Protein backbone atom coordinates (compact mmCIF):
# COMPACT_ATOMS: atom_id res chain seq x y z
CA UNK A 1 0.00 0.00 0.00
CA UNK A 2 1.37 3.39 -0.96
CA UNK A 3 1.44 6.58 1.03
CA UNK A 4 -1.56 8.92 0.78
CA UNK A 5 0.08 12.30 0.25
CA UNK A 6 -1.64 15.19 1.98
CA UNK A 7 -2.59 18.41 0.20
CA UNK A 8 -1.45 21.07 2.66
CA UNK A 9 0.52 24.28 3.09
CA UNK A 10 3.43 25.46 5.24
CA UNK A 11 2.66 29.17 4.80
CA UNK A 12 -0.27 31.60 4.57
CA UNK A 13 -3.24 29.45 5.69
CA UNK A 14 -0.99 26.75 7.28
CA UNK A 15 -3.12 23.70 6.60
CA UNK A 16 -0.32 21.27 7.58
CA UNK A 17 -1.51 18.47 9.91
CA UNK A 18 -0.24 15.04 10.94
CA UNK A 19 -2.53 12.05 10.56
CA UNK A 20 -3.00 9.90 13.73
CA UNK A 21 -0.51 7.34 12.37
CA UNK A 22 2.05 10.10 11.80
CA UNK A 23 1.57 11.45 15.31
CA UNK A 24 2.49 8.00 16.69
CA UNK A 25 5.61 7.81 14.51
CA UNK A 26 6.81 11.33 15.35
CA UNK A 27 10.52 11.25 16.34
CA UNK A 28 10.10 12.67 19.83
CA UNK A 29 13.63 13.78 20.76
CA UNK A 30 13.70 13.53 24.57
CA UNK A 31 14.57 10.20 26.18
CA UNK A 32 14.40 11.69 29.69
CA UNK A 33 12.73 14.64 31.44
CA UNK A 34 15.59 17.08 30.81
CA UNK A 35 17.69 18.24 27.89
CA UNK A 36 21.31 19.25 27.46
CA UNK A 37 23.68 19.01 24.52
CA UNK A 38 25.45 15.72 24.08
CA UNK A 39 27.28 14.02 21.22
CA UNK A 40 24.17 11.93 20.68
CA UNK A 41 25.38 10.27 17.49
CA UNK A 42 24.49 6.64 16.80
CA UNK A 43 24.65 4.30 13.80
CA UNK A 44 21.92 5.08 11.26
CA UNK A 45 20.42 1.63 10.95
CA UNK A 46 16.90 0.59 10.02
CA UNK A 47 14.44 0.79 12.92
CA UNK A 48 10.99 -0.60 13.70
CA UNK A 49 8.34 -0.88 11.02
CA UNK A 50 6.02 2.11 11.12
CA UNK A 51 8.70 4.41 12.62
CA UNK A 52 10.53 7.20 10.79
CA UNK A 53 13.52 4.82 10.77
CA UNK A 54 11.74 2.09 8.81
CA UNK A 55 13.75 3.36 5.85
CA UNK A 56 17.07 5.19 6.06
CA UNK A 57 15.70 7.97 3.84
CA UNK A 58 12.18 8.56 5.08
CA UNK A 59 9.36 9.61 2.76
CA UNK A 60 6.07 10.46 4.45
CA UNK A 61 2.59 11.87 3.87
CA UNK A 62 3.98 15.42 3.65
CA UNK A 63 6.32 14.66 0.72
CA UNK A 64 4.43 16.31 -2.13
CA UNK A 65 3.48 19.41 -0.13
CA UNK A 66 7.05 19.85 1.11
CA UNK A 67 8.43 19.67 -2.41
CA UNK A 68 5.91 22.30 -3.52
CA UNK A 69 6.96 24.55 -0.65
CA UNK A 70 10.64 24.09 -1.59
CA UNK A 71 9.89 25.15 -5.17
CA UNK A 72 8.23 28.32 -3.85
CA UNK A 73 11.23 29.15 -1.65
CA UNK A 74 13.68 28.64 -4.52
CA UNK A 75 11.63 30.79 -6.86
CA UNK A 76 11.82 33.63 -4.31
CA UNK A 77 15.48 33.10 -3.38
CA UNK A 78 17.71 30.91 -5.58
CA UNK A 79 20.64 31.44 -3.16
CA UNK A 80 19.13 28.75 -0.92
CA UNK A 81 20.71 26.18 -3.22
CA UNK A 82 24.44 26.62 -3.84
CA UNK A 83 27.34 24.40 -4.78
CA UNK A 84 30.97 25.52 -4.98
CA UNK A 85 32.63 24.51 -8.26
CA UNK A 86 34.55 21.50 -6.87
CA UNK A 87 31.37 19.87 -5.51
CA UNK A 88 29.67 18.59 -8.68
CA UNK A 89 30.95 15.03 -8.27
CA UNK A 90 29.58 14.95 -4.72
CA UNK A 91 26.26 16.10 -6.19
CA UNK A 92 26.20 13.00 -8.40
CA UNK A 93 27.03 10.87 -5.36
CA UNK A 94 24.04 12.35 -3.58
CA UNK A 95 21.76 11.83 -6.57
CA UNK A 96 22.69 8.17 -6.61
CA UNK A 97 22.18 7.76 -2.86
CA UNK A 98 18.75 9.39 -2.80
CA UNK A 99 17.46 7.64 -5.92
CA UNK A 100 18.62 4.26 -4.61
CA UNK A 101 17.21 4.76 -1.12
CA UNK A 102 13.87 6.17 -2.24
CA UNK A 103 13.40 3.43 -4.85
CA UNK A 104 14.38 0.77 -2.29
CA UNK A 105 12.03 1.99 0.43
CA UNK A 106 9.08 3.04 -1.71
CA UNK A 107 9.02 0.99 -4.93
CA UNK A 108 5.38 1.86 -5.56
CA UNK A 109 6.35 5.56 -5.77
CA UNK A 110 9.91 5.60 -7.16
CA UNK A 111 11.71 3.47 -9.75
CA UNK A 112 15.35 3.63 -10.79
CA UNK A 113 16.60 1.58 -13.72
CA UNK A 114 20.23 1.63 -14.85
CA UNK A 115 21.81 0.56 -18.11
CA UNK A 116 25.45 1.52 -17.68
CA UNK A 117 25.51 5.31 -17.47
CA UNK A 118 21.99 5.59 -18.91
CA UNK A 119 19.64 5.98 -15.95
CA UNK A 120 15.87 6.26 -15.91
CA UNK A 121 14.21 7.79 -12.86
CA UNK A 122 10.49 7.64 -12.30
CA UNK A 123 9.01 9.71 -9.47
CA UNK A 124 5.26 9.05 -9.54
CA UNK A 125 4.12 11.42 -6.75
CA UNK A 126 5.69 14.38 -8.59
CA UNK A 127 4.93 13.10 -12.10
CA UNK A 128 8.58 12.87 -13.21
CA UNK A 129 9.98 10.35 -15.69
CA UNK A 130 13.50 11.36 -16.81
CA UNK A 131 16.24 9.50 -18.63
CA UNK A 132 19.75 10.92 -18.29
CA UNK A 133 23.43 10.08 -18.45
CA UNK A 134 24.99 9.66 -15.00
CA UNK A 135 27.88 12.11 -14.69
CA UNK A 136 26.75 14.38 -17.55
CA UNK A 137 25.16 17.48 -16.08
CA UNK A 138 23.87 18.62 -19.48
CA UNK A 139 21.37 15.73 -19.46
CA UNK A 140 19.51 17.02 -16.37
CA UNK A 141 17.37 20.16 -16.02
CA UNK A 142 19.40 21.23 -12.93
CA UNK A 143 22.76 20.33 -11.43
CA UNK A 144 22.63 16.84 -9.87
CA UNK A 145 22.33 18.05 -6.27
CA UNK A 146 19.55 20.52 -7.06
CA UNK A 147 17.74 18.02 -9.28
CA UNK A 148 17.47 15.29 -6.65
CA UNK A 149 16.98 17.54 -3.63
CA UNK A 150 14.00 19.16 -5.31
CA UNK A 151 12.59 15.62 -4.99
CA UNK A 152 13.72 14.70 -1.48
CA UNK A 153 12.36 15.82 1.88
CA UNK A 154 14.74 17.65 4.21
CA UNK A 155 17.65 20.01 3.78
CA UNK A 156 20.95 18.68 2.49
CA UNK A 157 24.47 19.90 3.21
CA UNK A 158 27.38 18.38 1.37
CA UNK A 159 30.65 18.61 3.25
CA UNK A 160 34.05 18.38 1.63
CA UNK A 161 36.67 16.65 3.77
CA UNK A 162 40.19 18.09 3.71
CA UNK A 163 42.87 19.24 6.17
CA UNK A 164 41.23 17.13 8.88
CA UNK A 165 38.12 19.27 8.76
CA UNK A 166 34.72 19.33 7.07
CA UNK A 167 33.78 22.25 4.82
CA UNK A 168 30.22 23.31 4.05
CA UNK A 169 30.75 23.58 0.30
CA UNK A 170 27.32 22.76 -1.13
CA UNK A 171 23.75 22.60 0.04
CA UNK A 172 20.01 22.79 -0.53
CA UNK A 173 18.63 24.58 2.48
CA UNK A 174 15.02 25.75 2.42
CA UNK A 175 13.62 24.41 5.70
CA UNK A 176 16.35 25.54 8.03
CA UNK A 177 16.06 26.44 11.67
CA UNK A 178 17.51 29.91 11.39
CA UNK A 179 20.91 29.53 9.71
CA UNK A 180 21.97 30.86 6.33
CA UNK A 181 23.64 28.62 3.75
CA UNK A 182 24.51 31.70 1.72
CA UNK A 183 26.47 33.11 4.66
CA UNK A 184 27.97 29.84 5.91
CA UNK A 185 28.95 28.24 2.59
CA UNK A 186 32.71 27.64 2.43
CA UNK A 187 33.09 27.57 6.23
CA UNK A 188 34.64 24.72 8.18
CA UNK A 189 32.87 22.67 10.87
CA UNK A 190 33.87 24.94 13.77
CA UNK A 191 33.17 28.16 11.91
CA UNK A 192 29.62 27.37 10.85
CA UNK A 193 28.79 26.15 14.37
CA UNK A 194 30.41 29.24 15.92
CA UNK A 195 27.14 30.89 17.04
CA UNK A 196 25.93 27.82 19.00
CA UNK A 197 26.21 28.57 22.75
CA UNK A 198 27.69 26.26 25.41
CA UNK A 199 28.58 23.36 23.11
CA UNK A 200 32.08 24.57 22.14
CA UNK A 201 33.14 24.78 25.79
CA UNK A 202 31.91 21.23 26.34
CA UNK A 203 34.15 19.97 23.55
CA UNK A 204 31.08 18.77 21.65
CA UNK A 205 32.24 19.92 18.24
CA UNK A 206 35.78 18.58 18.55
CA UNK A 207 34.43 15.12 19.36
CA UNK A 208 31.69 15.32 16.76
CA UNK A 209 34.17 16.30 14.04
CA UNK A 210 36.44 13.40 14.95
CA UNK A 211 33.51 11.04 14.66
CA UNK A 212 32.26 12.48 11.37
CA UNK A 213 35.61 12.53 9.59
CA UNK A 214 35.86 8.80 10.34
CA UNK A 215 32.48 7.83 8.91
CA UNK A 216 32.83 4.97 6.46
CA UNK A 217 30.96 4.21 3.31
CA UNK A 218 27.87 2.10 3.95
CA UNK A 219 27.89 2.94 7.67
CA UNK A 220 25.88 6.14 8.07
CA UNK A 221 25.24 7.75 11.46
CA UNK A 222 22.46 9.93 12.85
CA UNK A 223 21.43 12.26 15.65
CA UNK A 224 18.34 14.23 16.61
CA UNK A 225 18.17 17.97 17.17
CA UNK A 226 15.16 20.09 18.00
CA UNK A 227 13.73 23.56 18.29
CA UNK A 228 10.25 25.08 18.23
CA UNK A 229 8.43 26.96 15.51
CA UNK A 230 5.31 29.07 15.60
CA UNK A 231 2.91 27.88 12.89
CA UNK A 232 3.95 24.90 10.75
CA UNK A 233 6.37 26.98 8.73
CA UNK A 234 9.20 25.15 7.00
CA UNK A 235 11.02 28.26 5.80
CA UNK A 236 12.25 29.74 9.07
CA UNK A 237 15.36 31.15 7.40
CA UNK A 238 17.25 34.15 8.75
CA UNK A 239 16.71 35.64 5.29
CA UNK A 240 12.98 35.87 6.06
CA UNK A 241 13.22 36.36 9.84
CA UNK A 242 11.67 39.84 9.54
CA UNK A 243 8.66 38.15 7.90
CA UNK A 244 8.14 35.17 10.23
CA UNK A 245 9.58 36.68 13.45
CA UNK A 246 6.32 38.48 14.34
CA UNK A 247 4.61 35.04 14.58
CA UNK A 248 6.38 34.65 17.93
CA UNK A 249 4.33 37.50 19.38
CA UNK A 250 1.02 35.86 18.46
CA UNK A 251 1.05 32.99 21.00
CA UNK A 252 -1.79 33.21 23.55
CA UNK A 253 -3.09 30.71 26.15
CA UNK A 254 -5.99 30.04 23.77
CA UNK A 255 -3.94 29.22 20.65
CA UNK A 256 -0.83 27.47 22.06
CA UNK A 257 -2.07 24.05 21.03
CA UNK A 258 -2.57 25.05 17.43
CA UNK A 259 0.30 27.51 16.89
CA UNK A 260 3.28 26.11 18.80
CA UNK A 261 5.11 23.28 17.03
CA UNK A 262 7.92 21.06 18.14
CA UNK A 263 10.41 20.91 15.29
CA UNK A 264 12.69 17.89 15.23
CA UNK A 265 15.59 17.40 12.89
CA UNK A 266 16.68 13.89 12.09
CA UNK A 267 20.23 14.52 10.95
CA UNK A 268 22.10 11.73 9.24
CA UNK A 269 25.67 11.53 7.96
CA UNK A 270 26.76 9.50 4.96
CA UNK A 271 30.16 9.01 3.33
CA UNK A 272 29.93 9.57 -0.42
CA UNK A 273 31.78 7.02 -2.53
CA UNK A 274 33.35 9.01 -5.41
CA UNK A 275 34.00 12.40 -3.87
CA UNK A 276 34.82 11.17 -0.34
CA UNK A 277 32.55 13.97 0.87
CA UNK A 278 29.93 13.62 3.60
CA UNK A 279 26.29 14.35 2.97
CA UNK A 280 24.32 15.59 5.89
CA UNK A 281 20.55 15.39 5.33
CA UNK A 282 18.57 17.40 7.88
CA UNK A 283 15.07 16.00 7.83
CA UNK A 284 12.55 18.23 9.56
CA UNK A 285 9.48 16.90 11.38
CA UNK A 286 6.81 19.25 12.73
CA UNK A 287 4.07 18.50 15.24
CA UNK A 288 1.67 20.94 16.82
CA UNK A 289 1.13 20.87 20.58
CA UNK A 290 -2.48 19.68 20.20
CA UNK A 291 -1.19 16.65 18.28
CA UNK A 292 1.78 16.00 20.54
CA UNK A 293 -0.22 15.99 23.78
CA UNK A 294 -2.45 13.20 22.48
CA UNK A 295 0.44 11.10 23.87
CA UNK A 296 0.30 11.79 27.66
CA UNK A 297 3.90 10.75 28.25
CA UNK A 298 5.17 13.26 25.69
CA UNK A 299 3.02 16.03 27.21
CA UNK A 300 4.43 15.44 30.70
CA UNK A 301 7.99 15.18 29.49
CA UNK A 302 7.90 18.18 27.18
CA UNK A 303 6.52 20.28 30.05
CA UNK A 304 9.51 19.37 32.23
CA UNK A 305 12.07 19.86 29.46
CA UNK A 306 10.84 23.30 28.41
CA UNK A 307 10.31 24.46 32.00
CA UNK A 308 13.87 23.50 33.02
CA UNK A 309 15.74 24.48 29.84
CA UNK A 310 18.83 26.64 30.56
CA UNK A 311 18.23 30.26 29.66
CA UNK A 312 21.02 30.39 27.01
CA UNK A 313 19.46 27.48 25.16
CA UNK A 314 15.98 28.96 25.34
CA UNK A 315 17.34 32.21 23.90
CA UNK A 316 19.31 30.45 21.16
CA UNK A 317 16.26 28.45 20.16
CA UNK A 318 14.15 31.61 20.13
CA UNK A 319 11.66 30.45 22.77
CA UNK A 320 12.02 33.37 25.19
CA UNK A 321 8.97 35.33 24.19
CA UNK A 322 6.40 32.54 24.45
CA UNK A 323 8.04 30.09 26.88
CA UNK A 324 5.96 31.17 29.94
CA UNK A 325 2.70 30.79 28.02
CA UNK A 326 3.75 27.39 26.70
CA UNK A 327 4.96 26.10 30.08
CA UNK A 328 1.73 27.22 31.75
CA UNK A 329 -0.34 25.43 29.11
CA UNK A 330 1.73 22.24 29.30
CA UNK A 331 1.73 22.25 33.12
CA UNK A 332 -1.98 21.48 33.11
CA UNK A 333 -1.20 18.22 31.32
CA UNK A 334 1.53 17.19 33.77
CA UNK A 335 0.16 15.40 36.84
CA UNK A 336 3.68 14.88 38.14
CA UNK A 337 3.68 11.13 37.56
CA UNK A 338 6.78 9.35 36.30
CA UNK A 339 7.55 8.98 32.59
CA UNK A 340 8.77 5.69 31.16
CA UNK A 341 12.34 5.56 29.83
CA UNK A 342 12.98 6.03 26.11
CA UNK A 343 11.56 8.20 23.35
CA UNK A 344 8.40 6.44 22.33
CA UNK A 345 4.83 7.03 23.52
CA UNK A 346 3.37 4.61 26.09
CA UNK B 1 43.07 44.65 18.61
CA UNK B 2 39.52 43.35 18.89
CA UNK B 3 38.55 40.99 21.71
CA UNK B 4 38.17 37.30 20.87
CA UNK B 5 34.57 36.16 20.83
CA UNK B 6 33.32 33.26 18.73
CA UNK B 7 35.21 30.83 16.55
CA UNK B 8 34.20 32.22 13.16
CA UNK B 9 35.40 35.68 14.24
CA UNK B 10 38.82 36.29 12.67
CA UNK B 11 41.82 36.48 14.97
CA UNK B 12 44.65 38.74 13.87
CA UNK B 13 48.30 38.51 14.74
CA UNK B 14 51.39 40.67 14.49
CA UNK B 15 53.20 40.99 11.18
CA UNK B 16 56.54 39.23 11.13
CA UNK B 17 59.05 38.96 8.29
CA UNK B 18 58.61 35.65 6.45
CA UNK B 19 61.32 33.85 4.55
CA UNK B 20 61.24 34.44 0.81
CA UNK B 21 62.10 37.00 -1.81
CA UNK B 22 58.71 38.39 -2.77
CA UNK B 23 56.54 40.20 -0.27
CA UNK B 24 53.24 41.97 -0.92
CA UNK B 25 51.87 44.36 1.69
CA UNK B 26 48.31 45.71 1.59
CA UNK B 27 47.54 48.28 4.25
CA UNK B 28 45.24 51.13 5.09
CA UNK B 29 45.56 54.07 7.51
CA UNK B 30 47.12 52.96 10.82
CA UNK B 31 48.12 49.67 9.19
CA UNK B 32 51.20 51.53 7.93
CA UNK B 33 52.54 51.47 11.49
CA UNK B 34 52.26 47.66 11.61
CA UNK B 35 54.53 47.57 8.54
CA UNK B 36 57.05 50.02 9.92
CA UNK B 37 57.14 48.17 13.27
CA UNK B 38 57.77 44.93 11.41
CA UNK B 39 60.48 46.58 9.29
CA UNK B 40 62.52 47.14 12.44
CA UNK B 41 62.78 43.34 12.79
CA UNK B 42 63.34 42.61 9.09
CA UNK B 43 66.72 41.54 7.69
CA UNK B 44 68.67 43.95 5.51
CA UNK B 45 67.41 44.11 1.94
CA UNK B 46 64.01 42.69 2.93
CA UNK B 47 62.09 45.40 1.04
CA UNK B 48 64.15 45.01 -2.15
CA UNK B 49 61.60 42.41 -3.27
CA UNK B 50 58.56 44.00 -1.67
CA UNK B 51 55.52 45.82 -2.95
CA UNK B 52 53.46 48.03 -0.67
CA UNK B 53 49.95 49.03 -1.69
CA UNK B 54 48.69 51.66 0.70
CA UNK B 55 45.29 53.31 1.17
CA UNK B 56 45.92 56.33 3.42
CA UNK B 57 43.17 57.72 5.60
CA UNK B 58 41.61 61.11 4.90
CA UNK B 59 44.50 62.84 6.71
CA UNK B 60 47.01 61.24 4.32
CA UNK B 61 49.31 60.25 7.19
CA UNK B 62 52.12 57.67 7.14
CA UNK B 63 52.91 57.90 3.40
CA UNK B 64 56.43 59.17 4.03
CA UNK B 65 57.05 56.47 6.68
CA UNK B 66 56.30 53.72 4.17
CA UNK B 67 58.24 55.34 1.33
CA UNK B 68 61.26 55.50 3.61
CA UNK B 69 61.29 51.68 3.69
CA UNK B 70 62.25 51.88 -0.04
CA UNK B 71 60.10 49.00 -1.29
CA UNK B 72 60.69 47.88 -4.88
CA UNK B 73 57.16 49.05 -5.68
CA UNK B 74 55.04 51.54 -3.81
CA UNK B 75 51.46 52.24 -4.84
CA UNK B 76 49.05 54.73 -3.30
CA UNK B 77 45.36 53.96 -3.79
CA UNK B 78 42.49 56.27 -2.84
CA UNK B 79 40.17 53.37 -1.93
CA UNK B 80 40.04 49.57 -1.81
CA UNK B 81 37.75 49.52 -4.84
CA UNK B 82 40.36 51.43 -6.85
CA UNK B 83 43.08 49.02 -5.73
CA UNK B 84 41.10 45.91 -6.64
CA UNK B 85 41.99 45.53 -10.38
CA UNK B 86 45.70 45.88 -9.65
CA UNK B 87 45.53 43.52 -6.71
CA UNK B 88 43.72 40.87 -8.75
CA UNK B 89 46.36 41.03 -11.46
CA UNK B 90 49.25 40.92 -8.99
CA UNK B 91 47.83 37.89 -7.18
CA UNK B 92 46.76 36.22 -10.39
CA UNK B 93 50.30 36.48 -11.80
CA UNK B 94 52.05 35.72 -8.53
CA UNK B 95 54.50 32.83 -8.36
CA UNK B 96 54.60 30.27 -5.58
CA UNK B 97 56.40 31.79 -2.65
CA UNK B 98 54.81 35.23 -2.69
CA UNK B 99 54.24 36.29 0.91
CA UNK B 100 51.15 38.31 1.67
CA UNK B 101 50.84 40.76 4.59
CA UNK B 102 47.60 42.59 5.40
CA UNK B 103 47.44 45.38 7.96
CA UNK B 104 44.87 47.94 9.02
CA UNK B 105 41.12 47.91 9.45
CA UNK B 106 39.10 44.68 9.51
CA UNK B 107 37.32 45.72 6.35
CA UNK B 108 40.63 46.10 4.48
CA UNK B 109 42.06 42.83 5.81
CA UNK B 110 38.85 40.95 5.02
CA UNK B 111 38.44 42.26 1.49
CA UNK B 112 42.10 41.73 0.58
CA UNK B 113 41.90 38.21 1.99
CA UNK B 114 38.77 37.55 -0.06
CA UNK B 115 40.70 38.40 -3.24
CA UNK B 116 43.62 36.26 -2.10
CA UNK B 117 41.35 33.27 -1.41
CA UNK B 118 39.88 33.61 -4.88
CA UNK B 119 43.44 33.53 -6.23
CA UNK B 120 43.99 30.22 -4.42
CA UNK B 121 46.09 31.44 -1.49
CA UNK B 122 45.39 29.59 1.77
CA UNK B 123 44.17 31.97 4.44
CA UNK B 124 46.37 30.47 7.12
CA UNK B 125 49.49 31.44 5.14
CA UNK B 126 48.57 35.13 5.20
CA UNK B 127 50.06 37.46 7.81
CA UNK B 128 47.55 39.87 9.30
CA UNK B 129 47.63 42.64 11.88
CA UNK B 130 44.67 44.71 12.93
CA UNK B 131 45.33 48.43 13.48
CA UNK B 132 43.05 51.41 13.68
CA UNK B 133 39.29 51.50 13.51
CA UNK B 134 37.15 48.55 14.69
CA UNK B 135 34.53 49.46 12.07
CA UNK B 136 32.91 46.39 10.52
CA UNK B 137 31.86 45.39 7.06
CA UNK B 138 28.39 43.86 7.41
CA UNK B 139 26.20 41.78 5.15
CA UNK B 140 22.46 42.11 5.65
CA UNK B 141 21.19 38.51 5.77
CA UNK B 142 17.82 39.73 4.50
CA UNK B 143 18.59 41.78 1.38
CA UNK B 144 22.26 40.62 1.01
CA UNK B 145 23.54 44.20 0.68
CA UNK B 146 26.92 45.06 2.21
CA UNK B 147 27.20 48.08 4.52
CA UNK B 148 30.74 49.40 4.97
CA UNK B 149 32.27 50.98 8.07
CA UNK B 150 29.62 49.99 10.58
CA UNK B 151 30.51 51.50 13.97
CA UNK B 152 27.23 51.15 15.88
CA UNK B 153 25.27 48.34 17.49
CA UNK B 154 22.63 47.90 16.14
CA UNK B 155 23.15 49.43 12.70
CA UNK B 156 20.80 50.23 9.86
CA UNK B 157 21.28 48.36 6.57
CA UNK B 158 22.28 50.97 3.99
CA UNK B 159 20.29 49.06 1.34
CA UNK B 160 16.95 47.90 2.81
CA UNK B 161 16.92 50.05 5.95
CA UNK B 162 16.21 47.24 8.47
CA UNK B 163 17.80 47.74 11.87
CA UNK B 164 20.38 44.97 12.22
CA UNK B 165 22.15 43.26 15.09
CA UNK B 166 25.81 43.11 14.01
CA UNK B 167 26.85 39.59 14.94
CA UNK B 168 30.38 38.27 15.53
CA UNK B 169 29.63 35.52 12.99
CA UNK B 170 31.98 36.22 10.07
CA UNK B 171 32.29 34.88 6.52
CA UNK B 172 35.72 35.02 4.87
CA UNK B 173 34.05 34.34 1.52
CA UNK B 174 31.92 37.46 1.86
CA UNK B 175 34.52 39.37 3.92
CA UNK B 176 31.67 40.44 6.16
CA UNK B 177 30.02 40.08 9.53
CA UNK B 178 26.41 38.97 9.56
CA UNK B 179 23.65 41.50 10.24
CA UNK B 180 20.26 40.14 11.37
CA UNK B 181 17.15 42.21 12.02
CA UNK B 182 17.21 43.05 15.73
CA UNK B 183 13.51 43.81 16.13
CA UNK B 184 12.08 41.33 13.63
CA UNK B 185 9.59 39.96 16.11
CA UNK B 186 8.20 43.35 17.11
CA UNK B 187 9.21 46.29 14.94
CA UNK B 188 8.00 48.77 17.55
CA UNK B 189 10.88 47.76 19.83
CA UNK B 190 13.70 50.19 19.05
CA UNK B 191 16.80 49.36 21.08
CA UNK B 192 19.29 52.16 21.81
CA UNK B 193 21.96 52.57 19.14
CA UNK B 194 25.41 52.64 20.70
CA UNK B 195 28.90 53.25 19.35
CA UNK B 196 30.31 49.72 19.52
CA UNK B 197 33.07 49.54 16.89
CA UNK B 198 34.91 52.89 17.04
TrEMBL record, chain A:
Record's protein name: DUF3445 domain-containing protein
Taxonomy of the source species: Bacteria, Pseudomonadati, Pseudomonadota, Alphaproteobacteria, Hyphomicrobiales
Top-rank taxon: Bacteria
InterPro entries according to UniProt: HODM_asu-like
Automatic annotation (TrEMBL), chain B:
Domain Dimethylamine monooxygenase subunit DmmA-like C-terminal: 137-180
InterPro entries in the record: DmmA-like_C (IPR048037), DmmA-like_N (IPR054582)
Record key words, sorted: 2Fe-2S, Flavoprotein, Iron, Iron-sulfur, Metal-binding, Oxidoreductase
GO molecular function: 2 iron, 2 sulfur cluster binding; metal ion binding; oxidoreductase activity
Domain Dimethylamine monooxygenase subunit DmmA-like N-terminal: 5-126
Pfam families: DmmA-like_C, DmmA-like_N
Protein name in the entry: Uncharacterized protein
Protein's organism: Mesorhizobium jarvisii
Phylogenetic classification of the source organism: Bacteria, Pseudomonadati, Pseudomonadota, Alphaproteobacteria, Hyphomicrobiales
